[in-house]
Write a structure and sequence with these properties.
GAF, 11 strands, Alpha-Beta Plaits, five-stranded mixed sheet, Rev_trsase/Diguanyl_cyclase
Length: 343
């Protein structure tokens, strides 16, 4: 009787832990935050030193977050035709309390997701699949001890996997809605809303830390004539081509935006002189691109460096002024008075 009472109390405690874990997961709406919270919360259910969350990545392979002895590691691993994670997704593996014997019996090798030689090897292993909309993965808990897990442990891990799958699906939906709200549908660049948020963040950094940022605003000279002569489909192709070229600037720390119509913006780190050099080199890419109109479009670009006390409207107004002056003079690039001296 006492044994049954003890078992009942343990079950109640575990279900309470599951409720707490579920509540903790519900507080996170971003996938990375959710996965890291999961690592911490899983210890409420299992007395185990290792938690692994593996997500399938496009093109094959896995993105893994591992918590082992309080150390969090993040790693990408290549796909394997018959690995432990692949077996979980196929439904042929769930629980092994003597992992080395299982590996020998099945003639399998494993990838160890840390490089510390002082930690022991996993002896007991459990894994359950995660299916959450576009997210597919595996949740695994592991132990250095043999015989560490029971069928009841697996049942709870499966319940936890269901809750984690729901939380992952909600997080993916939230991220997709956020991304769509900040993204231009034609070019895939950040839209005006994203521009406002990132621009304000740059101004705060400039005010607070003295960080240097330069805003470039550009439009396409006589873009209406392109639509009138070649049609809107070709006009859209020109805009998407420009978006692709602008993305190359992100490798130099820039953020790129489509503000609407044929108007784009680039937020570059550094002063206006550095930005001018970067954009001058980028214009060579524009000239060498295979445009559907044969001749490359003429871009008018105005530069404005952030200054203490600027508001977002001040900053944008100065860059716009320089852009319209470049358009009037049919120049590619104009910035501050010091920049103009070289034109």
């Amino acid at each position: 009787m006492n044994l049954h009472a003890s078992d009942a109390q343990r079950q109640i405690a575990r279900y309470r832990s599951l409720v707490r874990v579920t509540a903790a997961l519900s507080r996170h709406v971003r996938t990375d935050d959710l996965l890291r919270a999961m690592h911490e919360q899983v210890r409420l259910l299992f007395d185990t030193p290792i938690t692994l969350l593996a997500r399938c990545v496009p093109g094959g392979g896995w993105h893994c977050l591992t918590l082992e002895s309080d150390n969090v590691a993040e790693q990408d691993i290549a796909p394997r035709p018959d690995g432990l994670l692949e077996r979980v997704l196929r439904g042929t593996l769930r629980l092994e309390n003597d992992l080395p014997a299982y590996l020998r019996r099945e003639s399998l090798g494993i990838v160890r997701l840390h490089h510390r030689s002082d930690l022991p090897h996993t002896l007991s292993w459990m894994g359950v699949p995660l299916h959450a909309g576009e997210v597919t993965g595996v949740l695994s808990v592991q132990s250095y001890a043999q015989g560490a897990f029971t069928p009841e442990d697996l049942e709870f891990l499966e319940l936890l996997g269901v809750h984690l799958s729901i939380a992952l699906e909600n997080a993916a939906l939230h991220e997709r809605v956020e991304r769509e709200a900040h993204t231009d549908p034609l070019t895939g660049l950040w839209n005006r809303r994203g521009f406002g948020e990132r621009g304000e963040a740059a101004l705060r950094a400039a005010h607070r830390d003295g960080a240097r940022f330069t805003l470039a605003v550009m439009d396409l000279q006589d873009f209406k004539a392109v639509n009138d002569r070649f049609g809107h489909a070709v006009g859209d192709e020109v805009l998407t081509g420009l978006g692709l070229l602008l993305r190359r600037l992100t490798g130099r720390g820039a953020h790129v935006f489509r503000l609407g119509g044929d108007e784009f913006a680039v937020l570059l780190p550094g002063d206006s002189g550095q930005a001018r050099g970067t954009l001058s080199r980028w214009l060579e890419d524009v000239r060498g691109h295979p445009w559907p109109t044969a001749a490359p479009p003429h871009l008018n670009i105005g530069l404005a460096q952030a200054h203490p006390g600027y508001s977002m409207s001040d900053w944008l107004r100065e860059a716009d002024t320089q852009m319209y002056e470049a358009k009037r003079r049919r120049l590619h690039l104009l910035g501050t008075e010091a920049d103009r001296a070289g034109d």
